[in-house]
Amino acid sequence: MAVTMFVRSLLMLILLTVENAGSAVSPVVTFNPDLNKIFTGQSLQMTCDVDSTVQGDVTYNWFKDDNWIHSEKTFSIESALSSDSGNYQCQTSASDRSDSTRLEVYDGFVTLQAPTNVYEGDDLILRCQHYPGYTAKQTIFYRNNAVIQDWGSEDELHIENVNMTSSCKYKCTKQVNHHLLNYQHSDETSVSVQALYSLPTITQSPQFVTEGDRLTLTCHTRLSAHRQYTVLQFAFYQEGQNIQEFSSANTYEIPFTKLSDSRNYTCEVQTSNHRIKKTSTTTTIQVNRIGERELFNKSETEVTSKPGTSHVTTAVAVTSLVLVLFLIVIALIFLYWTKRIPLPGNNQPASKVEFKEPKDETENIYMDLDTNTGKWQIFSQKPHKEAVKDLMAAPPMEISAPLNVIKQ
User: Fold this and answer.
1) Rounded to the nearest 5 degrees, what angle is found at the Cα of 389, between the Cα atoms of 385 and 390?
2) Residues 350, 344: contact at Cβ < 8 Å?
C-alpha cells in the first residue's frame, strides 16, 4: 500500500512539474476588443502575452495559419478584410508557439459575436451586431435552435456564471433595414466553455511517514494560461470533516504525526467569488510505527513498503539473478574444458598421457679388480636398471695400467 501511494505521488509530482514547466513560458494571444468575429473594415489589435518570469530581451513572432506575418509584441489590423480570417499564434525567443486563436472577418449584414475564450464562472455576453451604416430593429436569440430570448430591442444576450453545460451552438436573427425594407438576417457561433483550473490533487511530504514526523499535505491545481492571475482559495478535509478553512494557503501541516492520523484526506479549491469549487480525489495517508522503516536513503527520496512484502521480493529476485549468472559461468567453463579433454564415454578416444621419469643426468664410472681373473674392469652406474644391465653384460675390459676414477 505504501509503495502504491509513493509511486502515485511521485508520478503526480512529475506531471505537475512538467505541466508547470511548460506553462511558465507559454504565451497567449489576446484580442482587443475581445471578439471572435468582426465586420470587414473594422479594426482589432492582438497582443502576445508571456509569463512575467521571462527576463531579458524578448523577441516576438506572429503566425497566421502557420505562416510568419509579424515580429513585434502586438499585431494590429486597421481595416479588416475577409482574407484576415484565420488562426493566429505568437512565439517568443524564450517559448514555444502559443495555442491558436481564431478570428473571423465577416462581410454580411448580421454577425453573432462571442469572446475568444470563455471559462467556467464567466458571465457570457453574446452580441448580435448588424453591419455599420444600416439600421436594425428587433432581435431573437436561440440556443441549439431553441428560442431563449424572444423578439426584443436588446441586441445582447447575457448568461451569468456559465459552466461546461453552456458549451453549445448559439444563433441570433435580426431585422435589418436596407432598400427601404426590413429583412431578417441570421448568424450563429459555437461557444466552448473551458475549465478555469484543473481538478486538484494532494501530494504528501515525506512519502514515508513515521510517528512523530512532520507531515505536509499540498493541494495542487493549474490555472488556465489566460487566467493566471485568478485568486484561488484552498481548504482541507479529513474523512470528510473540515480541518482547515478556505484560505490562500494550499498546504496543511501536521507537526507531530500519530498513528490516528492514518486517514483519508481531500482538498477543495474555489474561486474568490465562490462561483467555481472543485474537490480532489481522496488520498490515504499511512502513519507507520517507529522501527517499521525498511529502506531509507537520506540523500534521495524515501522508498518504503510494508515489512515482508516488496523488499523481500526484491532481495529474492536479486539473489536468484546472481545465482543464475553464477551457474551460467560454471556451465560455460565446463563446456570449454569438455571440448579440450573429452570425458569417458564420449565417442572420441581419450588422449594418451605419457609420464616420463625425470632424467638423471649424473653417470658414475668406476673400476674394480676382479680377483678371479686378476684383471681390472670398468663399471658405469646409471639411474635406470636397464643401463646397469647393459654394462654388466659387456665383456670385461683389460687395462694394463692403473686408471683414475672419472666422474662427470
Assistant:
1) 120
2) yes
In angstroms, the CA 224 to CA 230 distance is 9
Q: What is the pLDDT of residue 90?
A: 95
Scan for cell 476588443, then name that residue: 33
Q: What phi-psi label fits residue 213: left (phi over 0), alpha (psi between -120 and 50 degrees) or beta?
A: beta
pTM more than 0.85: no
Q: Say what the pLDDT of residue 372 is.
A: 67
Domain 115-194 and domain 201-288, same fold? Reply is yes
Alpha carbon 153 to its chain's center: 55
Residue 301's closest CA among 1, 14, 15, 22? 14
User: What pLDDT is attached to residue 296?
Assistant: 45
Cα separation, 116 vs 34, whole angstroms: 6
Structural domain boundaries in the chain = 23-107, 115-194, 201-288, 362-408
Q: Which amino acid is at 212?
A: G
Alpha carbon distance 3, 13 (integer Å): 15
d(C-alpha 250, C-alpha 202), whole Å: 10
Q: Which CATH number applies to 23-107: 3.30.70.260, 3.30.360.10, 2.60.40.10, 1.10.150.20?
A: 2.60.40.10
Q: Dig out the grid coordinates for 177 from the structure.
A: 433595414
Cα(105)–Cα(237) distance, rounded to whole angstroms? 50
Exposure pattern of 178-194 as b/e (b: 16+ CB <10 Å)? Answer: eeeeeeebbbebebebe
The Cα-based distances of 312 to 8, 94, 98, 319, 325 in angstroms read 21, 49, 50, 11, 20
- Mean pLDDT, each 10-residue run in order, the chain (408 residues): 43 43 68 96 94 74 96 95 96 89 94 96 96 94 95 94 94 92 94 96 95 96 92 97 97 96 97 95 94 52 42 61 82 74 48 45 57 63 50 50 42
Q: Is 341 strand, coil or helix?
A: coil
CB neighbour list of residue 282: distance below 8 Å, 6 or more residues apart? 264, 265, 266
- The CATH code belonging to domain 201-288 is 2.60.40.10
- CATH class entry, domain 115-194: mainly beta
260 DSSP 8-state letter: G
Long-range Cβ contact pairs of 295-298 (< 8 A, separation 24 or more): 296/208
- Take residue 18 and report the three cell numbers written for it: 512538467
